[in-house]
Each structure stands twice: as structure tokens, then as C-alpha cells.
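REQUEST FORM: STRUCTURE PREDICTION
Request ID: SP-0412
Submitted by: Lab K.M.
Chain count: 1
Length (residues): 389
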Amino acid sequence: MHNEIYLDNSATTPVAPEVVQIMEPYWTVQFGNPSSPHLRGVAAQKVVSSCRAQLASILRVHPSELYFTGSGTEANNLALQGVARAPYFQRNPGHIITTPIEHPSVLNVIKHLEKLGWETSYLSVDRYGRIDAAEFPRLLRDNTKIVSIMLVNNELGSIAPVGEIGAMIQRENQGRQHRIVFHVDAVQALGHLPVKIPELKAHLCTFSGHKIFGPKGVGLLYANKQVQLRPIIFGGNQEGGLRSGTENVPGIVGFTKAAQLVTENLDSNVKQLSELRQVLLAGINTIPDAFVNSPEDGAPHILSASFLGVRGEVLVHFLEQRRIFVSMGAACSSRKKDVSHVLKSIGLQHHEILSTIRLSLAPQITLAQIEYVVYSLKEAVEEIRNIYI
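STATUS: Completed
RESULT:
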């Protein structure tokens, strides 16, 4: 009766047909290396420059401040390690402020920097993964040099007051010899919230193609002109000497088209996602011993819910039999045996974490499909509880 219902869009999205179509010629016809001096190479270089200009216009920044990477993870690494490798910071490691619910590609870089002498403070998060900007000034130190805060959390959908914290950093920097560098991971925000970098007041901002119905294997870093970044990959002189490696031209073309589509359709997509989320939320609230971990005012596409007495892993497979695909949490950590650091940070008990699933929506999903998901969830939860209790 129902086709596959894919509700794991925070892990990855299917590539939009328009994106597939626009990428097609760049594998077989316009396949030149942008570094080659001949006609094919020059044509490829022009395409990359054109994409950079289009993305700069969407994000309201200068094209020279955008760097293409191989993933959102690489963009986060380049942002944080790139700052930390500046000669001054290598001699004088400083203090970092972040949150305990960042993506592993931020938290694990920070753990690495701690081994090099950096110190870290974590903003506290409430039961729904929200931070309070008022706590931020209390964590500031004279040697605070990096602040890294994700705009939309990938497991809970909580939205951080990034613009507010950015404004505090701006004021703080007026009296500092060495300015604090503010990094924002906006991977889950693009296409779900309006993202204009000047409003975020971020010096560094990261994005990923495959979260917005674009291809895998392409990410983007915005780096303000004032930030001194050092490369973390060495080789040729691509991307202004900051990111070596032949540019992924089809990926860059696809990413740009996907970014245009989600930006142009933002209002209608958010309206559709919000309606679907409300129906899903209402449905989950009718299931006994179930609770939602995502804030009411969170991003419109993410819902985390726990079903007591039900293993998330088992529920995922029960739903899969009905051709409904959800995840247990973040895709990056679901194969590891560790429990989610995000769910731990918001105070969930071990058994509650194990009973949690994440449903992440896309605008193509219909109301009828979500009603079927709610019905299937109720049945699956009841069935599992009858088996295991």
C-alpha cells in the first residue's frame, strides 16, 4: 500500500532529480581538471568560480571567503585545526568554549587540541538540548581563542542562539589583541532555517551537500578574511592554497544547485515540515510511556523520541519491516556501541537512551505517510512491549 517512507534525512538525503540532471555532464562531457591550462581545464575552473559566486550570494558573503571541501566533517576540521595551527596559537594554545552536544567532527577535534595544550569549557544544555546565551559571558577567559557552537543539533533539532553569542563575541573582541574566532556548524540548518552568515556573526561556518538533497562528498567552509587559517591537507594549490586536491566539479555543481533549491523553497518547505512534525508529535504523545526529547521550538525536520521498555534498535527493525526507515540517533555513531553523547548530555538515563529513535523529515513526505508512520509506531511499540515484558 505504501512505498518506502524514509525518515532518516538528518543522516543523508536522496539527491534531488534536478541536482542529478545538472551534475550529469560534469562526469563525461565537461570532465576537465580546473587546474589544467587548456580549454577543458579553463571551462571547469569557470564552473567552480560560478558556483562559488552563486553560493556566496545565497549566504551573503564574498566568493573569496568560500572553500570547497570533501565533507562537512572535513570543513569542521579545517575550521578548528586551521585556526589552531596558526603559529601564534601553536606557541600559545588557549581556551575553547563549545557545547557538549556538538557533532563528533567538532568534539573529537577539540579532544585532539586538548592533547596539544588547549583547555575547554562547555556551555550547559537543558532537557531539550538548548543553551542559554546568558551563560556565555561567565565562561569567557582572557585566553579564550575559539568558540564553536552548532546552529541546529543533528539529534534533537534544538536551535542555538548563535547570533546573540556572535554579537557578544564582537563586543568582546573590540578590547582584545587576539580576537576570539567564532565557528558555527550550520550543516543541519541550511534548508531548514534562513541562513545568512552576516546575521550569525560567525567567522567560520560549515555546510554539507548531502544533507540538503545534494551529493555526498562535498562540503563548504566559509572563512572570514580576518581569520588566519592554515591548511590541514597538503598538496597542490587548489582552493586558495587552503585545501589541496582536485576539485570535485560534479559535486560542487550539485551542491550549488541543491543549495539554490532549498533556499528558494525554504518557506513552503518549512511550512510542510512543521505540519508533518506536529502530526508526528501529536501521535507520539498518544503512545503510553513515550516522551519527546526535541524542543517544541526546534528545527522543523527533526524529532527525537523515547519509548520506555522498547529497545530503539529493535523498533528500528520493526519499522523497517513496514518499509519505514528511521535511525537510533546520529548516523555517525549508530554503529558504535557507545550511547549517544547528546542524549547523555540532556540527562537521559541509560535505559532511556537505549529506547530512543530519531525521525527526520523531508518536504516530499505526505500527511498520509506520516499518519501511517504514527499508526505503525503505535502497533510496533505495543507489539515489542508484549514480547519483551
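NOTES: The first strand starts at residue 5 and ends at 6.
Reviewed by: T.R.
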